[in-house]
């Protein structure tokens, strides 16, 4: 009998951990044609419970990968937030209803709740045609980044060595594999092995609030059971999160006496269980009744808010998702932050692996996402404290009022639509005034334009898919006006010149140019637009109402703060965030923007 | 060697012909659990050309079968109609643009163009999980309806004998099968064998207008090539129909000299071809150029408008689609009329086969659909004549003006949303005044309501799927008002009584009850609604704006002409057409409506 030799292999990107953060990255990289592998220590994907809330911005992100249809088909939508407080007789009573999402720019003004296993299945099914599946159960046992500067400087070097151990190897196969990867992503959760291997500390602290969570199909006379309800009762707080089908999740505030072992002073899971959680719920819901026949999932947690001190080692090994930040689940941010982390990182790695960009863009991942995590933690501290506080009553004048709580609830942080990335090589706000309301460093505001050739309405975000290309939006002004059209032609000549960014940095492989005319729908001819600004008849849009108005098309120039006589060129990053804006006469600033991090293309597809 | 014996079999419904009419019926019956078979003489489904325009109403119909998503994903949308007429120099010039669909109630205000093969694939994929596939190539050789009155009166008798011949039988298999069917549908096209076997005449006449059709990917400087364009030129007329991908269909008016054989006086297909059609197009398009590298499909046709004298024999054998009516393709009605025919018929057959209804409802098929076909033919005569006429010029003062043409074009007939079925056992307009704008005999007007339990907006049509159930819409008024709620409870008691229609005619198997409250979103409790009016938390709707208004929800009572203090009960047929309306106090009229054609259920699912 021979002992099988350890396998050796190379890969562009190795992802460790197949939760939402890892799968999001794996799918994005697989779709981008990057050679990617993903391993996980669990023998199968999660079947119940865990994270389940998808924020409005993440619906937009999933849509950019073609995944929102399925999410919306399978998930539950939360449109309504309801608030209960103690009534005169001590039982709870409704003190108000409010929209669950008030951000005016949210394209989908609601949260979606869907079991984490269904979210993971969505990614798995999407990347299967690319030949990528999760290898499991597999754990990493060694992680080494090259110490050789020349190796680290070469973006194509396999600078990271990882030893993988197969926990359930096939008969006769080695249980060890040595993988040499160009880049590694640790998406291995709050107890991240990768983070620990890199010696990255978590900064922050634990609170004393202990909560229980239980998933049930309720039998109740409570009239708001299908809405996101925040209950502040004299018996503790509760948040109701309705889910797919008839399922409902209850977050229940627990008293130390319920769960803490008096001898050890630590939370004792054995002291609690779903039946006991339902007893807590019964007290909280009084005078309404709530019962359940069975419990689909339950857990306990202590709120802690912490952020990793670094998000990467040498821009070769990255961490994302829960490996970088932990916080309370009730603000509904866990899975969202994870998906947004990986969405931010994946296209940057793809550009570097393809040789389009130099490695400097990888530094923006930590810059952009760690800042976000810190903001999130600050919000979460405030929100969690307010939720865990007693309600204001005649006896407790320091308690939280309905109005204070609702103000925090609707603060707008949780929708994700306002995420703002600071200036960097990828975010240049010098000419913000030329598109004053299309904030550079934020995602492109949803807006319906009509397609000039056939007057079909399109949401602009649907023309900005996550296909790894930069989208160049030429706000051309009134192309049915001869003088304006002459300006546009001059601009087109500059963009299309041999020294222009388009030909220099990769042409149509790298850039998708869309033209947005402000001509009227009666007068526009899409054929007037210079060829480089309309590679296909579908590439010319119009800022006008529909022929027979049904959508909110029209008014896009005003919404974006762009002058119709002046026009503007807007560069949108592959992740839908605005990178740079320039007036026609400052086209060189766009060329300089790309020159700072892109490599001159050997060949250009026009 | 033994000669294989002819097979003998029985089936509920045998469909002959697997074009859109046959497949629509097969899918609907298969989904309804009816034992159905479908045969076709062609060895494979169509691969190119043929009918391709889907009207707004048919998008709604397909949505009710869960098929609209795919249609909208794959198809092209026509939002814009453009009109060209001769300019001062004799070449064509644009004289106007208009919405392609102006019907305010169209839920999808555009036409979809998609290759007939893709439409057929949609039905094939939908019914495959039900175990129904097209048997081909197979032709019928004999059709006999029983002459025994007692057999004909028994809805469950296999009263029709059909002999099928397999054109390509498997080795050792008989090439003949004797099928005894309860019902037969002839969906075998304009030259219908079934129609001829029944001896049904086509009434109407042929015109002299000869047209050519060609599908191309155009190379052109014509700025309206992606819109539905009607060209009246001095060199003949043309209609452009843009299609999926970059394909465009041209309908070109031909001169007799182009296509008629002078010796025989008949159209000679050999005289014409796609290259010649493109030469005709070049003259028509002048001063614009139009060329094509290749031709995907082409044909010639002479406009004829004819309707079958009968649509059925003894309500045992039916014909639908082109077997019943032929007309010009340019009004875009062929496939639409076919789909609507089968949509009208399928649920009625399902109800009779299940023993829910007696056979009298089958008579309404001819009543409803033949009347429609006659209206269609009258419209088509006018429209085709106008399209084939010369444009009005200084020299031709009898020609058609742009204004005359556009008035006919936008007449609203072609969208299908205004199809009206006359009074019958299924259409009772006695109490029309109680829902004055929800026209009895027409499809339910699209309207967004919000779901009371979670405030999620729903288009009402999406709650009226083609699941063969009657939908009972209880417009309950303000259920947060105690006096009104008392009236609703009285109504609920009557509906739920042992002699009420609900329990008498099949309960939840047959009826889906939805309640629409006019309470405000701040005050409503869905739990107030009596249990029989909310079999699930999702069954209570609200006529109010959204929490954070994004859709056009709200104002439904006004739109439907229903008084909020009085309320109304609206019965919607399984095909989304309004059957009867009654005020609360006239509930007996609804019971009488069902009593006229329904059978008392042996068992009732509540």
UniProtKB/TrEMBL annotation, chains A, B:
Domain spans labelled FAD-binding: 11-379
Pfam family, one: FAD_binding_3
Phenol hydroxylase-like C-terminal dimerisation domain: residues covered: 419-599
Domain of life per record: Eukaryota
Keyword Oxidoreductase: yes
InterPro entries: FAD-bd, FAD/NAD-bd_sf, Phe_hydrox_C_dim_dom, PHOX_C_sf, RIFMO-like, Thioredoxin-like_sf
Protein name: FAD-binding domain-containing protein
Organism whose genome encodes this protein: Phlebiopsis gigantea (strain 11061_1 CR5-6)
